[in-house]
Amino acid sequence: MSGLPAATVRRLQKLPQVPSVWEGDRHSLSGRLRMGSQMSPGATEGECILWVDGIQGVVRAMEVVPLGSGIEPMVRTLILAMERPHSASPARPQKIIVRDREVQFFLRGVLHELDIKVECQPELPLIDEILQSFEDAHERIPPPLPAEYADLLTQKALTLWQDAPWDYLEDHQALAIELNHWDLDTLYVSVMGRLGMEYGVLFYRSLHSLKQFRQDAGQPDTPEEMEEAFLKQDCLYLTFQARHPDLNELPDLDLAELDPDEIEPNFGTIHPLEGLRSTVQEDEAAILTVALEALHRFLEQHHNKLEQDFQACQGRYRIPNPQSKNQTKESTLSVQVRALPDLAADLLELGEEESETTAHTLLRDDLVPEGAQLGLGVLPWTTVEALRLMGQLHPLPESKLVEGGEGLPVVIVRTSRPKAKQLIQNLQGEGGPQGICFNTGVDPFDGDRYDLEIVQTGNQDLHLFGEFPEDDPIHSMARKRWERRCRDTGGYCGLVVAMGVTSVRPELQMRHILALFEMQALNPTRLGLGPMVRISRQFHLP
């Protein structure tokens, strides 16, 4: 057994010794009772270590550790109780009492230089009382879903997962579910997941809340402001996550790539005065049950119209009332679901006030050289640093780039050396690239829809760098990876201008890169952009 380091002993000896007796113990907890974050995400059981002042009746330190961690965590938590207690002054006790004889012998050997007596007693009344209060508190915690709704709601949520409305609905393309029940007239539905980032459905309890969030979410400049806008919503929600906790930690995880049996739903509610609550009450569970069933039937009936430019359509359905076992309740409810294309257009326009001048300008298509290769990729941070040292990196002023994830997400323009040098010169003449966004483009002549890659330069002009068919699976997957990588870097990305378009080696080599411009990943709503219409070879807002 190794003792405390001499420096630690000297540091602890400087603490005042108080005439107090502390109790210490460890207690097994089920996975649902974990109270700390020291355990690994996949752990299902742990132990709670407690050190309490038996005279003052206060908890000085508490830690949760994985089951079977040995005796050493008892010492670590005791040192924490002495030096950084929860609600008392730093101090050394005169005596400590433990329940386990082996722990007593271990602590005697470790603490012999600190003048602390170590005793063993089979009963520790104060700790037993505290642990019992934990158990009682746990029993009072309501389950995420009422027991009679748990299986039913989970089944309906997984049915919606199979419907996958995010494959064709944007988050501004709202639906209305008219319930006229449970003190609710209409729920306004916003589908999340088009970008492959967060899959789910928001059921807004008022049109005002939906519009307010759309407006507020387009304006925050800081994470704190975004969180404030999020908590001001008034809605019920359904989100999805991987059933295995480790998968949810993967930065590039796309739930759509998992088997359906690897998906699990989460339900909850958000209210401006209550905040976020991840438990659902009985009436809320009933509302979600009926709304999900009505939404499923509507998607089955009208998904073709919804996929085709979000056409106006509606359906009325008789939905079983999950509370009908109560004799005073109706056995079925008449529920109408409608697509709201006019509202969708309004929601898309909410953020355009700040960029009215942009809305009337053409999207320029004169920067990218003819025959250039375009693509999305990632540069390792070592390559970014090397380019910085060589003077080929052009950072943004006051950059807040975070070197997170696997590297810097980049747009790659690859052409011949003379054209690459000319492109660099032209970009610098426009004030340098400042940001990039992806926006919908429509060709009215053949009805095709495109994902437009748009770069904004320092003079506020918008330039078309690439256009990709909206249903191109390769581009769709590349863009999903791009979105996730931009999150890891704090919303920053890059534009690579490279030569070697005719090279026999298709991979981009560092020697091919002539410039790397730092940019920000922009929201098209912040630029005042809605769907753009092709006129000749250019796109513009209608």
Task: Explain the overall architecture.
With 542 residues, the protein is α+β, with helices and mostly antiparallel strands. Helices cover 30% and strands 30% of the residues. The protein is built from 13 helices and 23 strands. It has helices at 6-13, 72-83, 101-111, 125-140, 147-163, 207-217, 223-231, 245-248, 282-307, 341-349, 381-389, 417-429, 473-488; strands spanning 17-30, 45-53, 58-66, 92-98, 117-120, 175-181, 184-192, 200-204, 235-242, 263-271, 275-277, 314-320, 332-339, 373-379, 393-394, 408-414, 433-442, 449-457, 462-469, 492-498, 513-521, 532-535, 538-540. Strands 14, 15, 16, 17, 18, 19, 20, 21, 22 and 23 form a 10-stranded mixed β-sheet that branches. It has an 8-stranded antiparallel β-sheet with strand order 11-10-9-8-7-6-13-12. A 5-stranded mixed β-sheet has the order 3-2-1-4-5, sandwiched between helices. Helix 3 (101-111) links the parallel strand 4 and strand 5. Helix 5 (147-163) runs parallel beside helix 9 (282-307). The longest helix is centred in the middle third of the chain and has 26 residues, at 282-307. It starts with 5 loop residues before the first helix and ends with a strand. Residues 31-44 and 351-361 have low confidence and may be disordered.
